[in-house]
Amino acid sequence: MLRTALIAGCLGAGLVALLSLAGCDSAPKRDYAAAREFPSELKRSVVLDVQVVRDVTQISSTNTSARAFAEPTTMWINRRFSRPIGAWGVGETLTIDLEQFRDNFGEQFRAGGFFSANRPDDVVLVELETGEGDGRELVGLVVVKGKAE
To answer: Could you give phi then psi for residue 16, rounded to 5 degrees?
Structure first.
């Protein structure tokens, strides 16, 4: 009788431990749909006086230049994480969640935030990949307040 109760107790404790581990999700989220490697063969043509401002888990930028960007345009962060932004007209403001940016392995940018368990990445460098074919180029933007808080 005591032996049966002991076995049942061990099985119950094991089941509780297994279920509690099943609730933990420490693996990074991966999305391979737009995952690709940074185009290191492209050279930066110019750095525009367009500021990219980080606000905890988002970045915002207003195209204050005289240049409109047609599709396809991709925004790159830290020469690792990218996200297609489509066309970006003069005077338009973009606000993008940092978690939408992916690297070539499908891992998302660690944006941080109040409930984040991981140390957030800083936004150090922002570039736009624009143009098609041989006309592709990188355009630099100015990062303001890119440190994670």
So the answer is: -65, -45
